[in-house]
Amino acid sequence: FKKGDIILTTAKELLKQRYYEPIKEQPELFVGIELEYPVVNLSGNATDVSLTKQLLVYLLDNFDFQADKYDSDNNPIQLIDKTSGDMILFEVSYNTIEFAFAKAERISEVEERLDTYLSMIQPYLRDHNHELQGWGVNPNWAKNDNRPVKSPRYEMLMDFLELSKAKNDSFFHDYPEYGSFICGSQVQLDVSKTSYLRVLNAFNQIEGPKAILLANSEFWGSDWDLALSRDVFWENSMHGVFEENAGVFPKVFKNEDDYFSYLSETALFTAKRGDETYYFEPIRAKDYLSTPSIKAHSIRGEVVTIDPSEEDFKTHRSYQFHDLTTRGTIEFRSVCTQPFSSTFAPAAFHLGLLVNLVNLENILNDSPFFEAFDYDYPRIRRLFSKKDISATDLKMILPLTESLLSCAEDGLKSRGFGEEVYLAPLREKLDRLNKSLA
């Protein structure tokens, strides 16, 4: 072995310990849903962050929550529902409320709990001329106070993303504070040691159809030709300095080793030393342990030198659209927050396809669509994220999208919980697109 080979093995082994070891041989299938919503000032002015902070105090005082985290001004920033274990929290800034639901057996359980929380939150906000709205970008982002929640993790993240400003490189967009105003709809589903790679490969191929059905993050007030802008925020930021770290996989993985080799190209950019979290320029996982020493920053502005440690892999996170988590699940994270009428469409779509995985794979293998685009998955996703898609391109993608939707419906029907009703908004969207071509 050359020294470099041994270090690469170590990085891969550490990533396997983190992401592969927790996967069960035969897991039960649970659904984990996270929903982020912009708090919007109905007068079109900036979101009143003193109001949003007060909202969490109101929930704490009047309902069955306990505070789990506080900011440095002692405001509660994360609440836990004592009965369900669901969390209500600020995501990155005080302009965004996230609901992180405890795992559930069926989507309807989550829907009932969300309805309960909204019945507490929306009247309170509306009394003050604000409300939660179903957008992937806060409509008043340009006026809002986009500073991070005063907690070390978010302050560190924002400082890290700000590093792009000093680079004078056209690769980066001009909005390193994007975490304060973009909102997503994530779902986590259990996978097994035999299925996880199949799931990563199959779902990576359907990001074009997902953009067609679920784009909801126009970047208001900008000239971006995108109905789905969230990808650009991630990929053309410090998170995307190495293209492996964010977005779509460019290929189908042949085997486990192929996947973990790819993962070893992702970045580490933070390390904890004692109570302090430091951030630094991204370093590829495979190169991390052989880096002699690292110039790192604290959120208080001090610059220190740290030595890389295997322990630092315990905070590794990549920002791909399909991430293995440390809980034996795959997190699907490429979807914008949806309008309230289709809140649970993304979760239902992913769940139905996962349950019907063999059919999904058959559809993908038989579709002529990918060959027409040279199997360039990142390009497909970007092309179908645009506001204006040519009739020619639509004609090519709609049959595949139709097949996927039917596949998801069949998968949900086989579960027997009536969850296929959540796909109705996607069916309507698809019908509108088909009519536009007629």
Outline the structure in words.
- The chain has helices spanning 3-19, 49-62, 107-126, 152-162, 196-204, 207-214, 230-235, 256-263, 285-288, 345-355, 357-366, 369-372, 377-383, 391-415, 424-437, and strands at residues 31-41, 65-70, 76-81, 87-90, 96-100, 130-132, 185-190, 246-247, 267-273, 276-284, 294-297, 303-306, 319-320, 322-324, 329-332.
- It is an alpha+beta fold and 438 residues long.
- The protein is globular, with a radius of gyration of 22 Å.
Explain the layout of strands and helices:
Layout: H1 3-19, E1 31-41, H2 49-62, E2 65-70, E3 76-81, E4 87-90, E5 96-100, H3 107-126, E6 130-132, H4 152-162, E7 185-190, H5 196-204, H6 207-214, H7 230-235, E8 246-247, H8 256-263, E9 267-273, E10 276-284, H9 285-288, E11 294-297, E12 303-306, E13 319-320, E14 322-324, E15 329-332, H10 345-355, H11 357-366, H12 369-372, H13 377-383, H14 391-415, H15 424-437
Parallel strand pairs: 8-13
Antiparallel strand pairs: 1-5, 1-6, 1-7, 2-3, 3-4, 4-5, 7-15, 9-10, 11-12, 14-15
Helix pairs in contact: 2-3, 6-13, 6-14, 10-14, 11-14, 14-15
